[in-house]
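User: These chains co-purify. Model them together.
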Amino acid sequence: MSDRMNEVSVERARERLHEVRLQVNGAWRSGQCAARTSLVDFLRETLRLTGTHVGCEHGICGACSVMLDGRPVRSCLMFAVQADGHSITTVEGLAAADGTMSVLQDSFCQTHGLQCGYCTPGMLIAAQALLERNRCPTEFEIRDAIGGNLCRCTGYQQIVDAIRLAAARLNAAATGAGSGVSAPAA
Amino acid sequence: MKPAPFEYLRAASVEEACALLAAHGPDAKLIAGGQSLVPMMAMRLVRPAWLIDVGDIDALAQISIEPDTVTLGACARQYVLAAHGGLGAALPIIAQALIWVGHEQTRNRGTLGGSLVHADPSAELPLVAVMLDARIGLQSRARGRRVVSAREFFTGPMSTVIEADECLVEVRLDQWSGQGLGSAFDEVAIRHGDFALASGCAQIALDPDGRVRRVALALGGVAGVPLDVSGYAASLVGQFIDDTATEAIARSVAAALDPPADLHASSEYRRALALTLCVRVLRTATARARASLTEVA
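Assistant: Joint model of the two components:
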């Protein structure tokens, strides 16, 4: 065991550090990391943005989803050095600056769209990406959009309900028929 | 689950990528989208000492639609290919296949070339490349450019003819001439977006009178490489296609297969899927070809 630990620390000490500069939730941030540091580890450990969760670390579970230049990607399948110069949106970027939850986030609360919460940041990013390009998604489109995100608690139904509710509230707000954020579950 | 340490280099051109591959030899790997390579690195099944990023080379992301041929850059992202209007009109089979490739989050990063060099026997884009007998352009510093037929490119599961110093640069696909074209892709997986247990695709050209002019048929997940089984459908040429003929072809294809068995599906089940998928893709491609004839008329 100690040999293995020693090998790991030697492995780490030899690694060259790269300067990485990204626009995260609108603000330019920078830090140093080894080439093999995944984007999700860079966000969590270097930039201390721990809202994005690390799940499987090999691209299956979707918990680490963030938006790269406006498109959802798995941040465990990308090295931070590859994201240098790009724009990232994490779950921290969805709420208002004062912490008020977005319509989408509030809809997850309204419909009990989360239990343990581990998948939630990835679900929110996937749902946000969907609603940004499609304000009236069908149930199939909602299920397809979160198809790459695993949830082991909810059975997905409440998550689908949350996204459908958010779409309805956003549309109501856009047409002036509802108040948006505080609207109760339909 | 962290990859082993490596040195990261970003190549600004194909020539630079080839020079870096030549300099670092088999210890170097190219990365573009990383959607297949990074999981293998995370599991330490692959431990490159040098990782050469070709994902930002504009010349590798080009999509060119000419009257007879479509040329797709190796680093064209899957989401771009799926939504490209000109490509959708020229070769709708690409978008039909991409519906089945991973998920939105992986298609946003994943590339055409990455899928081909990864060479998963159940992957969708290699299957389309084999069905249309794509010409795959490979470049190295030592030997320049060579072109390999997709039907010779794949040599086994996760294996291709690509050499350690070569970069896959482009994929050329012929457009079939004339009217009355239809294509279809279908697969069976445990969940949508998972690896296919078996997959199939077909492309059919019908003469104005409805007789088959040309047909291509291919199956994935039933052998170590994507299989072109167009030969089994060749008897259709010059004939009217109906359910009896389609089912006879599907049965003869399935009988000739010896599919692999694993935890998810037995060999017999995969053979049954192959039969069903052959019928489905031939039927759907024919229906689309007929619809396109009607549009012309």
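Confidence is low (pLDDT under 50) at residues 178-186 of chain A.
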